[in-house]
Every structure is written in structure tokens, then in C-alpha cells.
Design brief:
alpha+beta; five-stranded antiparallel beta sheet; binds guanosine-5'-monophosphate; binds zinc ion
Length: 115
């Protein structure tokens, strides 16, 4: 728990969020400013600032994070039409919250390349 981290506060239920999935390691909740009809954030409960700071002992957790993202996409009904997983990392990618999170986006066609 990082006391200055907004997503740690969501994990600790100090800040409310619309939670769509939870287990002992992970939490998934609605993005407060959705960019698509489906836009949820999946995070490890452990405070890892970004993909640039994962450690070798996080390999199992990161695998579970992506496996669970796929399960949640199915649960939210976007697996067949398709979905996008986004992990913004540091300045050039415009990461704004420095607690690792996967954006799970779906429900509309998306363009490529990203802006
Ligand atoms: P980033 O830009 O770091 O990849 O994404 C951060 C995401 O967190 C943004 O999509 C933003 O809308 C979302 N966000 C920021 N603060 C909160 C919050 O307090 N609650 C929720 N549910 N989402 C948040
Ligand atoms: Zn945190």
C-alpha cells in the first residue's frame, strides 16, 4: 500500500469505485472517464508503479493479470467482437496513474495506430 496512490486507496476501499472483479491478487473496476462503451481497469493489488518497474518475482502475477484480463473481456461480452488491452508506461505513453494497470477497452471499433 502506497499512501499517496489513488489505486491503492481504491484497493483499500478508501476511495469508491465500481468494482467488476476481485480476487486475492487483482482488482478490476470501471474507469472514471470511459473512452469506450466498455472501459475497465485491471490492477494488481500490489503497488507496482509501472511496466518499467516489474521484477522477475512478478512474472506469475503479470501472467495472471493478462489471463484475468481475457476472462474479464469474456465476462463483459466483448471477446468475440474484440477488445484492446492498453498498458501506458511512463511519459511518452502518457501514463497518469503510477500503479500498474491494464485498460480493457471494447464495445466499438478502434483505430490503429494509437495517437
Ligand atoms: P493512464 O493514463 O495512467 O494509463 O490511465 C489512468 C486511468 O485512470 C485513466 O483512464 C483515468 O480515467 C483513470 N482514473 C484516474 N483516477 C481515477 C479514479 O479515481 N477512479 C477511477 N475509477 N479511475 C480513475
Ligand atoms: Zn498503488
Amino acid at each position: 500500500m502506497n499512501p499517496n496512490c489513488i489505486f491503492c486507496k481504491i484497493v483499500a476501499r478508501e476511495i469508491p469505485a465500481k468494482i467488476v472483479y476481485e480476487d486475492e491478487d487483482l482488482l478490476c473496476f470501471q474507469d472514471i472517464n470511459p473512452q469506450a462503451p466498455v472501459h475497465v481497469l485491471l490492477i494488481p493489488k500490489k503497488h507496482i508503479p509501472s511496466m518499467a518497474e516489474i521484477q522477475e518475482n512478478d512474472i506469475h502475477l503479470i501472467g495472471k493479470l493478462f489471463f484475468t484480463a481475457s476472462k474479464i473481456a469474456k465476462k463483459l461480452g466483448i471477446e468475440e467482437d474484440g477488445f484492446r488491452l492498453v498498458v501506458n508506461t511512463n511519459r511518452d505513453a502518457q501514463q497518469t496513474v503510477f500503479h500498474l494497470h491494464i485498460h480493457i477497452l471494447g464495445g466499438r471499433p478502434m483505430s490503429w495506430p494509437p495517437g
